[in-house]
Amino acid sequence: MVASHTWHPGTGRIASRWPVPVPLEADELLSTWLVRVALSQGCDPLALTGELWPKWRVWTLDLDRGVATERLRILERMSGIDMSALDAASLRTIAMAIGTAVPGDVAVVPWILALGSRNRQRHGGLQYCPQCFGTDKSPFYRLQWRLAWHNCCHVHSAALLDRCCHCAAPVEPHRLSPPTGLLNVCSSCGYDLRACHAMAADAGAMAFQITADDVVSCGYGKYGEFTLATTEWFLLSRYFLMLLRVAIRNSSSNLASCLVMLGADIPGMRPSLTGLGFELLPVGERAVFLAGTGKLLAAGPKRLLETAQALSLSSATLRQCLSNLPVHIRDIVDALPKQSRSRKSNSKTAEIAPLPRQTVTRIWARLQRKMRRIS
Known about the structure:
By secondary structure, the protein is mainly alpha-helical. It has helices spanning 30-41, 45-52, 69-79, 83-88, 92-97, 130-135, 203-218, 230-249, 254-261, 283-310, 315-319, 327-335, 347-352, 357-374, and strands at residues 117-118, 121-122, 152-153, 158-159, 220-223, 226-229.
């Protein structure tokens, strides 16, 4: 199987000012290409970027969100690679296509995996395919591995990994240093990531991934009989992701029943242990949600309305307090009756009641996540 989409063509031979020219591979990610450049020159990435951009703490930021023109011009002069090719290796163009801004001061951006940075340390944000590393002449990270709807490798039909299988640390190629010369090495324990075993790809998640790539490439997607612009299609997909997360927190609700009737496997889903945003979830958890989202998209608006009416869902159930609903969901919500029942809160009980088990589990999972990073 070949990749479903080419995000950028890379470069051929280049005339670099560095002793060892390092061309940009097709679909290669900008930040990790810089790491390859540094290791090829025999220095660590911090030293290289310190020479390129003095006083700019590159590795404490998400470099792949885009680089300012004046800094790209410096990189172009040293690398021999055109600015447009360097910019194409960032996430900026894709983010614009799906209607997502990528400001540097926002921790989580929709559909872009968050690095979870604390100084130069990271909690995640990078995925990889060990089999791709094994076939690369010089292992490199792909641009699509930073996209939150990607959790499978098209080429090898395998689930992507986001941690070292030996020490469970997140992959942080920017922390590699000589004599390491290749990016397939874990920066925490030195394990060869090519030796990691990946599970077979989830068929539903793979289907959604291919569809989403096509939507970005073509500029439009389908929802039932309707044709949606790329931005509208991704907004709708994000809405269904939200509904799934709400439904699995109460799998006996009418909302959960509605989504099950539309094809989502609510009984087989579990709430996220950490309760973090979608862009911070591990590969396996995202795969389940994406597969469910694909089912809801395939059902179409007519079936959603009919099922919601059959189960007597109120407009508030589908609105979920959102002020900006996707256009076709707004029409469905308007066709449902408004919520009429009100509940009285018991403030005294709320003050003395213990935390729910699910809340305690999430707090514990987040604490463990932080402790793994510290250790």
